Amino acid sequence: MAHLDSEVKEECLREDLKFYFMNPCEKYRARHQIPWKLGLQILKIVMVTTQLVRFGLSNQMVVAFKEENTVAFKHLFLKGYSGTDEDDYSCSVYTQEDVYESIFFALSQYRQLKNISLGTLGYGENEDNRIGLKVCKQHYKKGTMFPSNETLNIDSDIEKDCVHLDLSKSPQDWKNSSFFRLEFYRLLQVEISFHLKGIDLQTIHSRELPDCYVFQNTITFDNKAHSGKIKIYFDSEAKIEECKDLNISGSIQKNTQYVLVFDAFVIVICLASLILCTRSIVLALRLRKRFLDFFLEKYKRRVCDADQWEFINGWYILVIISDLMTIIGSILKMEIKAKNLTNYDLCSILLGTSTLFVWVGVIRYLGYFQAYNVLILTMQASLPKVLRFCACAGMIYLGYTFCGWIVLGPYHDKFEDLNTVAECLFSLVNGDDMFATFAQIQQKSILVWLFSRLYLYSFISLFIYMILSLFIALITDSYDTIKKYQQNGFPETDLQEFLKECSSKEKYQKGSSAFLSCVCCLRRKGSEDHLIPVT
Fold first, then answer.
1. How far are the Cα atoms of 272, 325, 337 from residue 351, in angstroms, in the given order?
2. Which residue from 27, 89, 189, 431 has the least number of CB within 10 angstroms?
3. Which residues belong to any copy of the Mucolipin extracytosolic domain (predicted)?
């Protein structure tokens, strides 16, 4: 009787394992189990993508409104602005007269803003809760300089003086102020800051409630280099605030309610998917424990790590992460829609990443077909080797990045900072912009010019002809290995051999299997029903 009970236990475990590794269609044919998770994933793909598209269109209007206002501010407050930034700064001046004219031009434009601006703008309060301009200048504490005699006497301590200009005074009063008598030989920078408020009305055309903005604008005259060229920077930081009093007639409010209901339905769908996937992982871990205990008891040895990892379904983990991000992103979107929150960037990152994971998860269902499964198996087989290879190649890449930055930085726009160097080298690896990178090097130093040629030729030759070819060879080798396995059979593990015994015993145990299956079903209906994983 003990031997029969052991056989029953083994047969039940084998059937549960076989059922666990079935695809949804096979599970439905075997036990008529409806693939709820598959249906939920298909529904979720449609709903999450629709939600993302709607939010993306709304976010585009927000970004466009900010960018267009920044361009408008530059034309309004920067004298002689051409419409295109010169470099990382907006424009530059070269004489003292131009500096004074640029400063007072910005002050005068601010004072008559309501008469000249085309936008829905008004004056806002600054950090001191005052309406007006705040002008600050930084300069060395004291000093004298005589370039003709090559003499310099300067105190490197920096002083900062600020003045608040309100709208009650005329521009002429500002010009007569002693604050604006600048000593350029010790001047470091002049900073003009002011706040403006605006309302984005274009959202009304999309049947959405309008947003209220606060623009924190700063105009900086940078003279830190003392090179005879003062760079003028314009920075505008837009913050969305809740409008205090909105009274809009029409169907906008009803449309907002429909969108909120749709977002709530997305949350419910993702919550159901999250619960089902979490349940499947828990049941799979319980089945794994049953198999490990049985294998240790019968064969007196542990199951290999590869077989243990077979019970951890990475696709479910991906779906859980996607569901969590979608739920959080949808809650943020609902708060943004109701104008209680204004964090568009965080919401777009959450919704965008979750949609990416949802679509990547579709590959799991394509993997049930052998023709599509090659991609997944190749990625799994090549990933460890590719990561080790990238770690080694990354050391060489970092070496070239630091070398290019320190040597070519002063002579080439694409090597000015480490981030730009890394992007430039990555584009060279992909064969982009090669001639421009060679041609833009300044020939002010023959030694640096020769070094740049050696640097670029060696990098391109090493990475394109050697490292990139080896990278592709690693993936190709894994692909060939998987193709051979599909033709000749995969190496059998302990788990696969255990499941194989099930099919080999089917013909031999025709009479006894009916009795065993009956016992298994009776036992499964009882205490072990919760151990059957549903994947």
1. 18, 7, 15
2. 431
3. 62-244
Cβ-based burial of 231 (10 A; exposed 0-12, middle 13-18, buried ≥19): buried
Which ranges constitute the DSSP H helices of 341-369? 344-360, 362-366
Residue 466 CB coordination number (10 Å)? 11
Summary count for the chain: helices (H), strands (E)? 18, 7
From 281, 310, 315, 374, select the one nearest 18 (Cα to Cα).
310
Lookup result for tokens 């799979």: 284
- Please give the DSSP secondary-structure letter assigned to residue 160: E
Q: For 201-298, list the strands marked E by DSSP.
A: 211-222, 230-241
Residue 467 CA to residue 461 CA, distance in Å, equals 9
> Residues with Cβ < 8 Å from 457, sequence gap 6 or more?
none
Residue holding tokens 């009803």? 254
Q: Which two tokens stand for residue 201?
A: 């009305």
Rounded distance between C-alpha atoms, residue 494 and residue 500, angstroms: 10
Per the CB < 8 A criterion, the answer to whether 80 and 130 are in contact is no
* Phi, psi angles (nearest 5°) of residue 152: -145, 130
Q: Quick one: which H or E segment has residue 159? A: strand 151-165
Q: Any alpha helices (H) in 303-343, and if so which ranges?
A: 305-309, 314-337
Candidates 219, 197, 193; CA nearest to 127 is 193
Distance CA 354, CA 52 (A): 10
Q: State if pTM tops 0.85.
A: no
pLDDT digits (tens, 9 = 90+) for 443-497: 778 888 899 999 999 999 999 889 999 999 999 998 888 888 777 776 667 677 7
A 10 A CB-CB count for 505 gives 14
